Amino acid sequence: MRLPCGIINKSYSQDTAIVRTNLQWLLLVLALITLFTFPYWASPHWISVMIGVWISIIGVMGLTLLTGYAGQLSLGHMAFVAIGAYTVAILMSDLNWPFWAALPCAGMISGCIGVIFGLPSLRIKGFYLVIATLAAQFIIVHIISRWDSLTGGVFGLSVPKVTLGGFEFKSDFSYYFLAMIFALIAILIAKNLSRSRIGRSWIAIRDNDIAAEIMGVDPFKYKLLAFFFGCFFAGIAGGLWAPYLRYLTPEQFTLMGSVWYLGYMVIGGMGSIMGPIAGVIFITILDEFTAEMVTDLATGSPVFAGFVQASRYIVFGLAIILFLIFEPRGIAHRWERIKNSYRLWPFSY
Amino acid sequence: MDTFLQLVVTGLAVGATYGLIALGFVLIYKASGVLNLAQGELMMFGAYICFVFSVQANIPFYAAVALTLPVALLIGAVIERFFLRYMIGQPLISVIMMTIGLMILMRGIATWIWGTEPKVYPQVFPQESMSIGSVNISYEYLWAAGLSIFFVLIYIIFFRFTKSGLVMRATSDDEHAALSIGISIKKVLSQSWAIAALTAAVGGIIIGALVGLDTTSFPQYGLKVLPVVLLGGLDSIPGAIIGGILIGLTENLVPEYLGFLGGGMEELAPYILVLIVLIVRPHGLFGLKRIERI
Question: What ipTM goes with this model?
Answer without folding.
Answer: 0.85
